[in-house]
Amino acid sequence: MNSQIVRVFAVIIVLFALLIIWTTRWTVIDASALNTNPLNSRALIAQLRVQRGRILAANGAVLARSVPHGGGTWGRTYPYGSLFAQPVGYANVAEGQAMVAMIDYTLAPAGVNILTAPDAVNAMRAAMTDGKDAPVLASAPIFLRESLLMPYTFGLDFVREVFSRKGKTAAFAGMLQRPPIDTRQVMEPDTYISRLDVTPPTIPDLDKLIMPDYQRYDFGGMGEYDIYLLAKQYAPDTDAKKYYTHWRGGYYLAVHAKSAPKEQIALFYFSRWDSPESANDFATLYSSYVPKRYRLTDGGSPGMMGSVATGDSTIEWDIGQQGKVVIQAHGDDVLILEGFNDATASRIRDALLHGVSQATPATAKP
Questions:
Q1: How far is 248 from 271, CA to CA, in rounded Å?
Q2: For the chain, does the N or the C end have fewer beta carbons within 10 angstroms?
Q3: Three-point CA angle 147, 153, 154, nearest 5°
């Protein structure tokens, strides 16, 4: 009897020893391999269980906040969409990572994953964006709908591509340590992986250019995703890649004429492209939508001027009391002027397209 008890006790000791050995191996020796296993989503789930604080503007407006997503997880919502994307850290990385983890978890029972079943992943992605299950979203304006979907479309594609080419660590922890610097790196993952960025165009003294007739109303950058939105709005039947992949920087300035009604705004938009051909393509795209934005006075025919030798082209629309819409392509650059008087438009054109420095315009003294 005593010998049987000893044998049972010995077996228990051996089992405990094996338990300690294997637990040590899993938690210490193989810890790195477990953390980078594509089927292990516990680290990401732990991140999603953290309720992050709000981001507020100076006037108290909420720019970003956490909302419950069920199962004890939290997601970020951005009341102003991509308007404040840079300061608040838009959701492309976090939501893209969450989508990869969710799809991987969904595919696991079938013995496949997000890397080995690309057709299944593409079908799931398409089902999320076709609008059949979300009629309100499907009927929303393009800008609003696409801005809300971006983290779940481009964000998913971005994380999936980095995961495929560089591994899980680069696609998760690595992205948090080195997030994409602009929407181009999200929409074109190769630029993120290769660490390619766009040198922003030099911005002259804009207030000097618009004085004395105008005062600044709004200023901002125009990124690759903004070009995508314009292309979706202006040419819905054309692949937006024809335009946005060629973008190389840009910004806009909206102003108010001191003598005009408060609701009347003039603006210019300067953009840079990877070739004169791409610049002309965008100029043509933008011009094609002018008749839908303004009530024209000339029967809908624009004035067009061009130079075959230089590749420059100018498209001009008469928009009545608001002035003109002038779209000028000059080399790799496109300048769009809407509603400016001729003198101010000439100063802006000389400074932005021809690099001519401007003296401060004289102002009348009382």
A1: 7
A2: C
A3: 85
Are residues 129 and 83 part of one domain?
yes
- What string of DSSP letters covers 149-197? HHHHHHHHHHHHHHHHHH-HHHHTHHHHHS--SSHHHHHSHHHHHTT--
> pLDDT tens-digit profile of 5-20?
777 777 788 787 777 7
* Residues 65 and 77: beta-carbon distance below 8 Å: yes
Whether 361 is in a domain gets the answer no
Among 149, 165, 193, which residue terminates a domain? 193
Closest CA to 327 of 218, 230, 220: 230
CA distances from 84 to 79, 81, 90, 217, 262 (A): 10, 7, 8, 17, 25
Residue 365 lies in a domain: no
What residues make up the domain containing 158?
42-193
Tell me the C-alpha distance between 175 and 171, whole Å: 6
Domain count, the chain: 3
CA-to-CA distance for 357 and 121, rounded, in angstroms? 53
The answer to whether residues 172 and 227 belong to one domain is no
Q: Are residues 223 and 345 in the same domain?
A: yes
Are 129 and 185 members of one domain? yes
**How do residues 21-79 score in pLDDT, each as one tens digit?**
777 776 666 666 666 555 555 655 666 666 767 777 666 777 677 777 666 666 666 56
Q: Looking at the structure, do residues 141 and 6 belong to the same domain, yes or no? A: no
Do both 165 and 79 map to the same domain?
Answer: yes
CB 9 within 8 A of CB 73: no
Single out the residue of 205, 206, 213, 211 nearest to residue 253, CA to CA. 206
Mean pLDDT of 187-214: 93
Task: Tell me the pLDDT tens digit for each residue of 65-91.
Answer: 777 766 666 666 656 554 555 444 456
| Centroid of chain to Cα 176 | 17
- CA gap 214, 345 in Å, rounded: 11
